[in-house]
Amino acid sequence: MAISKALNVNGKRETLTVDDPDMPLLYALRDNLALRGPRFGCGMAQCGSCTVQVDGEAVRSCVVPLSSLTAEQKIVTLEGLGTPEMPHPVQRAFIEEQAAQCGYCINGMIMESAAFLSKNTRPTEAEVKEALKDNLCRCGTHTRIVKAVLRAASNG
To answer: Which of 123, 114, 76 shows the shortest CA–CA distance to 93?
Structure first.
């Protein structure tokens, strides 16, 4: 039986009609709201490509059931972090450092980095590496990703 679910996504109230209240947030974002920032990777919260922020915390949307979210919680995806005209400092730094190669992990790297930098505005390189250790990148752009996060921190 279909139910109605209200969410606050990227500053807008969205009402979805879903058949399964325990459907992962990732599916609602991509399939119902046509947001393409968060990506399906592993489906087990191990790679990070689906990362979004819920109330400022980085979460793996592939394992967050819709039923666990309230309409008051603020969900932010890559599309809501900044705009093409005014990118978030992390987005701008990733562009400046050319941190994306294939681009599949970048959503998770950016969303995790933005959440991390909101709590630690002057991280060391070691702290950045620790914060991103659970986000998988297969292309080998780790050095540029770390540089981008450090740049974002210094330009904040």
So the answer is: 114
Instruction: Residue 28: name the closest of 9, 41, 43 by CA.
Output: 9
Per-residue b/e over 20-59, b at no fewer than 16 CB within 10 Å?
A: eeebbbbbbbbebbebebbbebeeebebbbbbbbbeeebb
Q: Residues 2, 32: contact at Cβ < 8 Å?
A: no
Q: How far apart are CA 52 and CA 112, in angstroms?
A: 8
Q: Distance between CA 74 and CA 116 in Å, rounded?
A: 17
- Name the residue among 111, 99, 91, 93 with its Cα closest to residue 142: 99
Calculate the average pLDDT of the chain. 96
Q: Which amino acid is at 23?
A: M
Give the tokens for residue 18.
């879903």
The one-letter amino acid code at 86 reads M
pLDDT in tens, 63-96: 999 999 999 999 999 999 999 999 999 999 999 9
Give the pLDDT confidence of 15-50 residue by residue, as tens digits.
Answer: 999 999 999 999 999 999 999 999 999 999 999 999
pLDDT > 70? residue 156: no
7, 28 in Cβ contact below 8 A?
yes
CA dihedral sign of residues 73, 113, 103, 133: negative
